[in-house]
Amino acid sequence: MRSSGLAWVVVVSACVTLACEPAGRNASSAGQAQDVEPAAPYESTVDEGLGAAVAILVDTSGSMKERAGSDDRPKYIVAREALGAMLDATDAFVAKRPDFPIKIGVYSFSSSVHVLQPIQRYDRAAVRVALDGLPRPGGGTAIGDALRTARPDLYRSGVFRKYLLVVTDGNNTNGPSPDDVARDIWRKSEGAVQIYFVAFDTNPDKFAFLKETGGDVLSAGGGAELRKALDEVYQGKILAEAPGAGEREPIKK
Fold first, then answer.
1. What's the pLDDT at 245?
2. In terms of C-beta density within 10 A (0-12 exposed, 13-18 middle, 19 or more buried), how is residue 33 classed?
3. CA distances from 215 to 75, 136, 183 (A)
């Protein structure tokens, strides 16, 4: 059933083959299967209601084993802890708004994409397990493939608000350009998917295209800045804005 609901996305990355795979399974083959997508707008495969779905895409390319600024730990560990702290805010939100479901999916990407937790209703313990399952860094950086992998899962989540949250420290090296994929998602979702990137220890200007797709990019040089940026996106934008959203008309072409 097609939804006219308003949805938003965040960056910390289908039933096309990919989204139907179990958590932790390599999803690169499904991403390749989506190289040619129909030009029509996306349609939800389920009835949708109030709620927010957030697909968290975490870079685990080779450079994420390096250190950022004065931090003495690898970037992927810093990112894992910052995301865990970010999601702690969900507990307080759910206590205040038990009627408004928050659904979380966790994905990692390097040269290929892995689904660590399919998008499902927030469960603190399950999210922790997914974050603890982040693979050790290695390989390239398939940002565009990660966006393509998570987007169909959002359309099966059953909620109006849809977000892609990407955390990355590098340039796209594998698969389609994130610029092209983000623009495609913005157009075919009719503005219903919001995309946020956090440029971790890298120049945010390379993701400036997000400004033209209804999204945004925030910069973080180290661990403290990463936590601040993630809180700004998750608490300041997603949790603050999502409860006020209902259905809306598609963007006029």
1. 57
2. middle
3. 24, 29, 10
Q: What is the pLDDT of residue 70?
A: 75
The phi-psi region of residue 116 (left if phi > 0; otherwise alpha if psi is between -120 and 50; otherwise beta) is alpha
Contact 237, 215 (CB under 8 A): no
Q: Does CATH number 3.40.50.410 belong to domain 17-244?
A: yes
Residues of the chain with pLDDT under 70: 1-38, 245-253
CA distances from 144 to 20, 51, 69, 75, 125 (A): 19, 26, 26, 21, 29
3-state SS class at 58: strand
- Beta-bridged to residue 200, according to DSSP, are 220
- pLDDT at position 190 is 92
Identity of residue 119: I
Q: What is the pLDDT of residue 244?
A: 74
Residue the block writes with tokens 């608490």: 235
Return left, alpha or beta for 201; rule: phi > 0 is left, psi -120 to 50 is alpha, else beta. Answer: left
The pair of structure tokens assigned to 133 is 């399952």
The pLDDT score that the predictor gives to residue 211 is 92
Q: Do 141 and 61 meet the contact criterion of CB atoms below 8 Å apart?
A: yes
Round the CA-based radius of gyration of the chain to a whole number and report it. 16
For the entire predicted model, the pTM comes to 0.82
Please answer whether residues 198 and 233 qualify as being in contact, where contact means their C-beta atoms are separated by less than 8 angstroms.
Answer: yes
